Amino acid sequence: MAYSLIETERDGSVLLVRLNRPDRLNAFNLDMHHELVRLYDEADADNDVRVIVVTGNGRAFCAGADLAAAGDTFNYADDPNHRDVGGELNLRTYACTKPVIAAINGPAVGVGATMTLPMDIRLASETARIGFVFARRGIVADGCASWFLPRVVGISRALEWTLSGRVFDAQEALDAGLVRSVHPPEELLPAALELAREIAENTSAISVTLNRQLMWRMLGADHPMEANQVESRALRAVGSGPDAQEGIGSFLAKRAPKYPGRVPADLPDFYPWWEDRPFRPLP
User: Fold this and answer.
1) Which residues contact 160 (CB under 8 A, 6 or more apart)?
2) CB 163 within 8 A of CB 131
3) What is the pLDDT, as a whole number, of residue 221?
4) Which terminus of the chain is less hemmed in, N or C, by CB atoms within 10 Å?
5) Ranges of the chain with pLDDT below 50
6) Do 135 and 193 lie in a common domain?
7) Which string of b and e fits 227-252 if b means at least 16 CB within 10 Å?
8) pLDDT given for residue 71 in this prediction
9) Residue 226 belongs to domain spanning
10) Does residue 1 lie within any of the structural domains?
11) Alpha-carbon gap, residue 281 to 283, rounded angstroms
12) What CATH number is associated with residue 212?
């Protein structure tokens, strides 16, 4: 994997990704967008990647959109079919077959904050500052945040943060459930990697992929019957398979499991069970 604006490093079956524009506080631009989408594509296709951890190089996670174009940064008047690239990135993260953990090591504002929302678990440094600052820039939230943020922290807190546009600290993010833990700067990445290894070393890759998508996609279901139908299909697909045999056998034998299933190679035939929605610009 060769990139210019992100760096990657393998730690066993964990893929560590660093946003890498430290001189610009890892500000997000179109090239970084393309590289992150490609990163998810390549990680999804790699049977040896179990978990992805995303952090930033330098003192920031991501300071938001690169404002090099000044007042025209968000001027899309000449593009009637404009598509928000932050939303496109987050839809790709949402579709990922591998769990994604954010290690928010410093400021994460604008798209730097919204890009973490479809990641499955977020940890923050004590130095992290987070802001959904769009109203203070005269624009609206990006990254499908109007779908993700209320589901992560609830509608009232999502409205408070997006209507005020204020930047808040890691403790407030923890209190609201946006992050699962706050760490001294030097302990953040080790904690994120430890969590990633816990997933990678103790679980079935196939089970993790199916559970990840079940949890996310059932957020939009209109009745629990939809969950019952898909879970029943998933249990039928994997219950007689080698991973289930290994999971039960290792538990009864009181030994560590060694799951043979790999993703994507061994995903059941019914996956994905949903139809992807094409992007259609509004008139």
Assistant:
1) none
2) no
3) 96
4) C
5) none
6) yes
7) eeebeeebeebbeebebbebbeeeee
8) 59
9) 204-283
10) no
11) 6
12) 1.10.12.10
Asked if 164 contacts 134 with a C-beta cutoff of 8 angstroms, the reply is no
Peptide bond into 242 cis (omega under 30): no
Considering the entire predicted model, what is its pTM? Answer: 0.95
Structure tokens at 137: 């820039």
Contact 81, 46 (CB under 8 A): no
Question: Of 194, 62, 176, which Cα lies nearest the Cα of 128?
Answer: 62
pLDDT at 77: 74
- Are 99 and 142 part of one and the same domain? yes
Cα 132 to its chain centre, rounded Å, is 17
* CA distances (Å), origin 74, targets 10, 69, 141: 36, 9, 12
Same domain, 196 and 208: no
Residues 217, 187 share a domain: no
- Closest alpha carbon to 29 in 71, 79, 74: 74
Please report which helix (H) or strand (E) contains residue 9, including its range. Answer: strand 6-11
For residues 143 and 62, the answer to whether their CB atoms sit within 8 Å is no
Residue 70 is predicted with a pLDDT of 58
Q: Examine the domain organization and report whether 144 and 221 are in the same domain.
A: no
Q: Is the residue at 210 inside a domain?
A: yes
**β-pair partners for 141:** none
Cα separations (Å) of 256 from 127, 155, 197, 200, 251?
Answer: 37, 41, 14, 13, 8
Burial string for 112-142 (b: 16+ CB within 10 Å, else e) reads: bbbbbbbbbbbbbbebbbbbbbbeeeeeebb
Check whether residue 194 and residue 240 sit in a common domain.
no
73, 145, 147, 236 from 109: Cα distances, Å? 16, 12, 18, 43
If DSSP codes are grouped into helix, strand and coil, which group holds residue 92?
helix
- Do 232 and 138 fall within a single domain? no
